[in-house]
Amino acid sequence: MSKTTKRVMISLLVVILLLIIAIHLILPVVDLPSPKGKYQVGTQLFSFTDNSRKEIYANSNTQRMLPVQVWYPTEEKFCRNKEPEFYMEKESCKNFERVLGIPYLLRHLASVKTNSYKEVPISNQEHKYPVIVFSHGYTGLIGQNTVQMETLASNGYIVFSIAHTYEAAESRFPDGVSIPFSEEQTNKLDDD
Fold this sequence. Notes:
The protein is an alpha/beta fold.
């Protein structure tokens, strides 16, 4: 191998290494802040079907289906030996990037862990808890305010967040089915 080829190879490796370091500095995998309330946080994903109306955004003759995620107070004993949930699925990151028009910039969010534990029992320290319903905006996400949901749940609130199927960046259902935002489908209403 000639000296010139070696220099080019070394220079290329240095540039690649610097790019990798820069990406990790610009887009770090962050830790979400720990909620300060007295409770640990549980979470579950549900799906509801409104049999009284058709899905206006779908081409098929289906009923309106909505995923709903709930955050709630739980106890530390229920969370032992469990890992907290990740902030987003890899596919969810891709769908969100597509909606925002920024490919590859949000993939690291699939590595961010929340402070919520999946499908653990609700705390029985109280007989009832106040309820809050959260509805994201157009092209938003069911868990876009996870830090806020966890803070509320850690302070004794039950928080429900509804994803608006076809209008959200993504609607993920408990069975793993994912329905991404569909500008084509939502624009059909404007055409009518």
